[in-house]
Amino acid sequence: MTVYSFYIFDRHAECIYKRRWLPRPASITSKSSQPVSDTPTVANGLTSVSGPSTRSQEDDAKLIFGTVFSLRNMVRKLGGEDDNFITYRTSQYKLHYYETPTNIKFVMLTDTKSPNMRVALQQIYINLYVEYVVKNPLSPVEHPGGVGVNNELFEQSLEQFVVRSY
Amino acid sequence: MPVYSLIIINKAGGLIYQREFQPGLLKLSTNDYLVLAGTFHGIHAITRSITPKIPNLSTPSTSTTPNPSSSSTPSHHASASTATSTILSPSSTSTPGGGGSQTPTAATPSPHPSSSSSWSYPNPSVPVSGLETLETEKFRLTCFQTLTGTKFLLFTDPAMPNVEGVMRSVYELYADYVMKNPFYQLEMPVRCEGFDRGLGGFLRGRA
């Protein structure tokens, strides 16, 4: 199973964290190998990636937010207020969604063969986000532009969590 | 294992058929169903265009990203961002059409010959599609898009097996009773008694 990317959106619809993983080359798939992550960073403040692109990563994040937001509203309209959108799948990828009671949205894109990742997203929220972002006394309450979420501890443990388990 | 309802959306995003078979989902007004059809049509196109693009790892010159150091420390923004731009440029330059209709194997010519360019979709053997199934806590939505762009949305119980088979039968009924009806106007709402009867007999029997 491969994880392609991971996003966190806050309750103001802003992307406060995003990260992409490249699939590791098939020859060196040992768990201990250094993960090939192409964007180790990603605080939104970085706008240097633009180049000649017509659609940057920020636009991708916005499209993903729009998609999960619309789907969530659609699901609530049909299934009732207490229904929750969990995942969708296309022929190429699978998107997993988890929303906390405080409207922080966790989104993960994986390959189509992956099992249900709702628990994994919940664990990322409980064990990583709450521990390293919310409980960090230096972290602001809101995270405009990803401030406070992009701390080293959170990033490293997220990296470990994803690489170790998947 | 009930089928809750069926929605058919024409290729322009208009609602042409909606029918409920089992109670289970909330009832919406006709207007809301029209909005839902249009919204879904848009989301379907977007889910297709946000398909992750995998840079080809066969070219070692570009794919081995220049970060031999630890990859997760945010201290080397400069090298990381350059790596990102070289990796991302092929994908970004190949999408100005916006339709997302290009095939991954067509290796769109890149303006950067240095970064021997290409990306592929995760499953190159399968054509790129939009949303196919969506799961929630209460229902599962299966979407089937025909070659002509008509979309069939089947709302079922999350545990229902073999939705594909049901979908195929619904499509057959549609072909038999709607498309072969000489009075049916293409892309217009479906009002064919035979189709209603066929669906009712087939789907109610599965409750």
Automatic annotation (TrEMBL), chain A:
Keyword Transport: yes
Main location: endoplasmic reticulum
CDD domains linked to this entry: TRAPPC1_MUM2
Keyword Endoplasmic reticulum: yes
InterPro entries named in the record: Longin-like_dom_sf (IPR011012), TRAPPC (IPR007233)
Coiled-coil ranges per UniProt: none
Location of region: Disordered: 27-56
Polar residues compositional bias, start-end: 27-55
Keywords tagged on the record: Endoplasmic reticulum, ER-Golgi transport, Golgi apparatus, Transport
Source species, domain of life: Eukaryota
Assembly information from the UniProt record: Part of the multisubunit transport protein particle (TRAPP) complex.
Membership in a protein family: Belongs to the TRAPP small subunits family. BET5 subfamily.
PANTHER family: TRAFFICKING PROTEIN PARTICLE COMPLEX SUBUNIT, TRAFFICKING PROTEIN PARTICLE COMPLEX SUBUNIT 1
Protein name: Trafficking protein particle complex subunit
Species of the source: Aspergillus keveii
UniProtKB/TrEMBL annotation, chain B:
Species of origin: Aspergillus keveii
Intracellular or extracellular location(s): Endoplasmic reticulum; Golgi apparatus, cis-Golgi network; Golgi apparatus
Record bears the keyword Endoplasmic reticulum: yes
Record bears the keyword Transport: yes
Segments of skewed composition (Low complexity): 54-95, 102-124
Name the record gives this protein: Trafficking protein particle complex subunit
Residues covered by region (Disordered): 52-124
Subunit structure: Part of the multisubunit transport protein particle (TRAPP) complex.
Family membership noted in the UniProt record: Belongs to the TRAPP small subunits family. TRAPPC4 subfamily.
Keywords, sorted A to Z: Endoplasmic reticulum, ER-Golgi transport, Golgi apparatus, Transport
Record InterPro entries: Longin-like_dom_sf, TRAPPC
